[in-house]
Amino acid sequence: GDSVTQMEGPVTLSEEAFLTINCTYTATGYPSLFWYVQYPGEGLQLLLKATKADDKGSNKGFEATYRKETTSFHLEKGSVQVSDSAVYFCALTGNQFYFGTGTSLTVIP
Amino acid sequence: GAGVSQSPSNKVTEKGKDVELRCDPISGHTALYWYRQRLGQGLEFLIYFQGNSAPDKSGLPSDRFSAERTGESVSTLTIQRTQQEDSAVYLCASRVGLYSGNTIYFGEGSWLTVV
Fold first, then answer.
1. Do B76 and B20 contact (CB within 8 A), yes or no?
2. What are residue B13's phi and psi, to 5 degrees?
3. From B105, which residue of chain A is nearest by alpha-carbon distance?
């Protein structure tokens, strides 16, 4: 069945470091791919999405490209900030939403 | 409403009691999902409603868990004879239709503590 495999954390980075969180998927058909973020004490919110192969989603300096050939949707940011500390979830959808296990990111000054 | 609304936001209950958690989805959203998130864990799918179709109950962990939704409105998740392992945040989410690119919007969650 459909599933998402996400890089395990926790991840700790210094401010202004480069971030990559890996996400790979297994799916039938043509799913859309999402990254959600959960800031401390808050609910999940959409960070970015891509609905077809080779699309790039971007928001708040984060980017992810839908790679059908490698079945991946890795999240990247060139220079992280303390305010980016959160848990990041990769997700895949057709009718159902399938979430990865989440990756906790802590950015230290 | 403007967003997905859940109530109560916090609930402390004694082991063995029944609890009801309510979700009011975004107006016009035909799909509604319930997830469970234990402390420090990922999202565990519980149940999914789409319009008037039969719900996908494949994620419900036991027969103590049930959920209802009338049409495209409010949903109620009921946990009977609560156990300590039921302590978690219960998240409701909704989205418009079944197009795969449609975003799913989450409520703030209902924090359940079973003592």
1. yes
2. -135, 155
3. A45
Contact B73, B27 (CB under 8 A): no
| Residue numbers in A near B36 (CB within 8 A) | none
Place of tokens 């949903």: B75
Indicate the range of A8-17, A44-53, A94-103, B9-18 predicted with least confidence: A94-103
CA angle B31, A24, A32 (to 5 degrees): 35
In residues, how long is chain B?
Answer: 115
Residues 91-110 of B with CB under 8 A from A: 91, 93, 98, 100-109
List of long-range contacts for A60-63, beta carbons under 8 Å, 24+ apart: A62/A35
User: Are B42 and A99 an interchain contact pair (Cβ–Cβ within 8 Å)?
Assistant: yes
* Total number of residues shown for chain A: 109
